[in-house]
Amino acid sequence: MSDKSEISPNRVARTPRTCRECDVRHRALCAAVEFVRLGELEQIVSHRFFDPNQTVFEEGEPADYAYNVAEGHVRVYKLLPDGRRQITGFLGPGDFLGLYRHDAYSYGAEAIDEVELCCIGHGDLERLMIKMPAVRDRLLEMSRDELSAAQDQMLLLGRKSAREKLLSFLLLKVRHDIEPTEAQPVTLDLPMSRSDIADFLGLTIETVSRTFSELRKQDLIELPTAQHVGIPDLAALEAAANAE
Amino acid sequence: MSDKSEISPNRVARTPRTCRECDVRHRALCAAVEFVRLGELEQIVSHRFFDPNQTVFEEGEPADYAYNVAEGHVRVYKLLPDGRRQITGFLGPGDFLGLYRHDAYSYGAEAIDEVELCCIGHGDLERLMIKMPAVRDRLLEMSRDELSAAQDQMLLLGRKSAREKLLSFLLLKVRHDIEPTEAQPVTLDLPMSRSDIADFLGLTIETVSRTFSELRKQDLIELPTAQHVGIPDLAALEAAANAE
DNA sequence: CGAGCTGTTGACATTGCTCAAATTTCGTGG
DNA sequence: CCACGAAATTTGAGCAATGTCAACAGCTCG
């Protein structure tokens, strides 16, 4: 029982890849580091592994590290005192985690499935950005993208119906996960639970479940399991999302 | 009729202040420019004036300029094809405007009242950030704050009731506009319309109006006019906002 | 096999929206 | 200064979308 690899044989090997081997490097903050200088990066980066539902950090915790998702999925959320939760984003391989304000994380983060994170201390990151100004540019660019995504999400939360919310969510996943060249029918993998989806879309799990069923009845999606969504006709789904 | 200052005598004088005289400089991006180098800033900054409800730029427009609000208030919004609107933020003096993605603004911006903006071309801004790295740091810091505010707003939009939304909005305004030392009772100035508030909070104007009336009946606020909110007891308002 | 968790479905309650009308505010022109 | 019309705000009544509560089904793990 002490060797975790025996408990869950399916989990990713807990051996960190080197930066040179990292297959999400070009999508991550590290894209701003020249290939020949990846060694300098490796010197200051460490790796941490998380089991499903394990906390990475909590809101308000002192922010010592910034993270890069190497493997798996993370949910980022904010809570109200009575426990209501808003998930502000789902992160996957290559996504950056750990912007902070006033030296404390302004949100919590939890692993959804088996997760590997590359960690870099804030001091080290600061020094890296001084040594390699392109890293700072890249961080600004990533913040910009995140801000733009946040604005899209505000539009969704404030102004879309339950049906539109779920359709937008599915199309977001498609654009994020699926190569445009990929042959249809497309299949989406949803690592997060209905409860996560509900808290991301500002709905209840019941409404999410009902809306999934409604889309299935209309043959816009297939649901072989709750975690797998088949999309027989992507264009039809897009049309449904853009119709009022 | 050709001299605009005669049409609306109350408007702000349309004479730009110099950067040295600017009283919001320490809150703006320009805070990262040393006082003795403000001259370099003035060389590349121009000024534009807007009347109430005038468009600054539209979503999707090529993003040539970044802006700094010098005077007045601006609303930033996103639209759905059928006209539903989500206001993602209200900007006041010192706030930055014009982050973009893929060389196009990802949102629209309109003047709420009489507005003066300091404008800087993106090319000039880029060069300025190279000459003065502190400006880039400041921009990153401001993006971070904006992102954190966006996350708070997602929590509001997705998980709060109409009453909680309006209370949060009022407290946001208090924290932004009022010096903590200021004597109570406090009076808030709301330059934006009920329709703007509704589109910011993800509600309808009717619900906003009803909720204002409800808070007034409970003596949590006073409404001498629709644009002025008196807060007799700030602590009571905060208590109401934090109670579920 | 049984416990427990996640997801689905049904019945009903409630919040906030829609439509409509009254009221107030504000700018314009006499 | 006052009258008028337009626009913004407030208020009311009814309704629809979504939330709440409850039961049930399906799956996983011991």
Overall SS class of chain A: alpha+beta
Per the principal axes of the C-alpha atoms, what is the gross shape of chain A? globular
| Largest sheet: number of strands, sense, barrel closure of chain A | 4 strands, antiparallel
Strand order in the sheet with the most strands of chain A = 1-10-3-6
Which residues of chain A sit in consecutive blocks of at least 5 with pLDDT less than 50?
1-12
Radius of gyration of chain A, whole Å: 19 Å
Number of helices of chain A: 8
Can you give the mean pLDDT of chain A?
A: 91
Report, as a whole number of angstroms, the end-to-end distance of chain A.
Answer: 54 Å
Helix content of chain A: 25-40%
Strand content of chain A: 15-25%
Oligomer: homodimer
| Total count of strands of chain A | 13
Question: Topology as H/E string of chain A?
Answer: HHEEEEEEEEEEHHHEHHEEH
In words, what does this structure look like?
Two copies of one chain form a homodimer. Chain A has 244 residues and is an alpha+beta fold. Chain A has helices spanning 4-7, 38-44, 122-131, 133-159, 162-177, 194-201, 205-217, 234-242, and strands spanning 46-50, 55-57, 65-71, 74-79, 85-91, 96-97, 100-101, 104-105, 108-111, 115-121, 186-189, 222-225, 228-231. Chain A has a four-stranded antiparallel beta sheet with strand order 1-10-3-6. In chain A, helix 3 crosses helix 4 and helix 6 (194-201) packs across helix 7 (205-217). The radius of gyration of chain A is 19 Å and the shape is globular. Chain A binds chain B through residues 78, 80-82, 84-86, 88, 99-101, 106-107, 133, 136-137, 139-140, 143-148, 150-155, 157-160, 199, 201-202, 242, 244, and chain B through 78, 80-82, 84-86, 88, 99-101, 106-107, 133, 136-137, 139-140, 143-148, 150-155, 157-160, 199, 201-202, 242, 244. Chain B binds a DNA duplex (30 and 30 nucleotides) through helix 7.
